[in-house]
Amino acid sequence: MTKEEVQQRVLKDGKPLDLDKFNWDEKTRTFSSSDNGLVIDFKDIYSYTFKTGSNCVFNTSSNCVFNTGDNCTFDTGSNCVFNTGDNCTFKTSSYCTFKTGSYCVFNTGDNCTFNVGSNCVIIRRDVYEVIEPEENIKIKLNDLGKKGFVVLDEKTKEEILEIDGKKFSKSIIRKALEEYFN
């Protein structure tokens, strides 16, 4: 896609964004702009990276990466990664990873991972569950149709279980059970 073709998909105040207001790397499929208030429409186009300012709206397909400021809205397909500021709204399909600031709302498919700031809520419509994760923890939702989540250890990428207020990695529990039963 040429820079001129990208320009037709990125609007500011209802008009195509000026060519000198954004960078486009066709080889890496990366769009970047420090402008705020953009409307970006890459629907039915896959595997792009977006780097923007705040107050942006994204309408994309799958396999996209987003690095944005605050107050952004996302309507995407599957396998997306989000690194954002505060006050963002996400509507996605499955297999997405979120790292956000505060006051975010998530409406997603299954197999999503969240690393969030304060005052965020995850609504599980498949099992009618509302999750209010603690600040600065990473969680992975249970499979589709099953309530709950597990906390992931950021350093080891292991699942952490909490029992009577104490946290244990699944590998430590598994090893202890194997030793006990062998």
Would you give an account of this structure?
- The chain is mainly beta.
- The protein has two domains: 3-147, no CATH class; 153-182, no CATH class.
- The chain is 9% helix and 37% strand.
- It contains two helices and 20 strands.
- The chain has helices at 3-7, 170-181, and strands at 10-12, 15-16, 23-25, 30-32, 38-42, 49-51, 57-60, 65-67, 73-75, 81-83, 89-91, 97-99, 105-107, 113-115, 121-124, 129-131, 138-141, 149-152, 159-163, 166-169.
- The strands form two sheets. An eleven-stranded mixed sheet has the order 3-4-6-8-10-12-14-17-18-19-20. A nine-stranded mixed sheet has the order 2-1-5-7-9-11-13-15-16, with no helix packed on it.
- A hairpin with a 4-residue loop joins strand 15 and strand 16.
- It is elongated.
- The termini are far apart.
- The mean pLDDT is 81.
Report a brief summary of the structure.
The chain is mostly beta strands and 182 residues long. It has helices at residues 3-7, 170-181; strands spanning 10-12, 15-16, 23-25, 30-32, 38-42, 49-51, 57-60, 65-67, 73-75, 81-83, 89-91, 97-99, 105-107, 113-115, 121-124, 129-131, 138-141, 149-152, 159-163, 166-169.
Please outline the helices and strands:
Elements: H1 3-7, E1 10-12, E2 15-16, E3 23-25, E4 30-32, E5 38-42, E6 49-51, E7 57-60, E8 65-67, E9 73-75, E10 81-83, E11 89-91, E12 97-99, E13 105-107, E14 113-115, E15 121-124, E16 129-131, E17 138-141, E18 149-152, E19 159-163, E20 166-169, H2 170-181
Parallel strand pairs: 4-6, 5-7, 6-8, 7-9, 8-10, 9-11, 10-12, 11-13, 12-14, 13-15
Antiparallel strand pairs: 1-2, 1-5, 3-4, 14-17, 15-16, 17-18, 18-19, 19-20
